[in-house]
Amino acid sequence: MAFITYQAFQKHLQGKTLAPIYLFAGDEQYFIDSCLKGIEEKLAVDPLNRETFQAPDLEGKTVSEAVQTLPFLGDKRLIILKLAHKLNNPDYEFVEKLIENPVDTTCFVILVPEKIKDVKKRKDLLDLCSSSKSCVSVDCKKIYDSDAIKFVKAEFARRKKLIPDELAERIVSETGADLLSLYNEIEKVCIYTGKDNNKITEEIFAKVSGWTKEINDFALTGEIEAKNLKSALFIFNKMITSGEDHIKILFQISSTVRKLLTVKSLIEEKKYDPRDAAAFARIYNAYFASIFLRNISKHKLSHLKKCISKILETDIALKTKSQSDKTLLLENLIIFICG
User: Are the CB atoms for 168 and 152 separated by under 8 Å?
Assistant: First the structure.
């Protein structure tokens, strides 16, 4: 089946039956997570009938056996394959056969968190899924700011809260069009207002979204890790406005890039298990490790190495420049890292 939109998939979920295979591909992680959650809620399988695999650290034969295993005390099994665009050729051959010969007692979900047009290694996987009558392929691409504003208004409306158009625009302007970040911001505002207050005002938003130094430091790190350029620059400018020292900001950026480089190098050059690599970088919490590893897939090892050289150049230049020139240097560094 040719790629359908996220909205079309939501309508598909309302049907009585599910397809044996799903492909969720694109660079909007919120859509991918939401689609997967929809499948999970629809199937409601027992944990014994649910397995998750992640490429490239898997054996295609193991995935094949998992898909073909009969459900235990249930009607369906749910098998999830993450980072499928990183499948190696021998493993892909097993997955290819599963798509060509779907198993009725298993729902096989394939995740590719990458822009569809940027997938090179496993373009054959996307082509096979989108041409298969047994597979529902969903285009989970990022949306434009105008659509993000509609998303913000719809999410508040779903929670029975009203928000002015100009405030919805401001939230998108400050947060960016990343839907997961917007969703978290909306959740934060709704928790603050409670059930009784159904109107979102500028005053409420200002209180909830206060930009303290601690929040800025953490947020800048997170946005650089996620390669959210617009949000990273917005937070950086907030830090400069609040009087944060340029050298301290550079140290923050340097620490972030070095951590990304260390983990990326361990995974790709030393062949570490991603979770072990995250633990090496002292990211022990499973939730934060999953976010970090998801973000690290957006960075290329060769580019991270170039970023280290760029950081050293910036460090030397900062010592001889004026305040305005220092700000421009750091802006250019963030653009280089996140570009």
Answer: yes
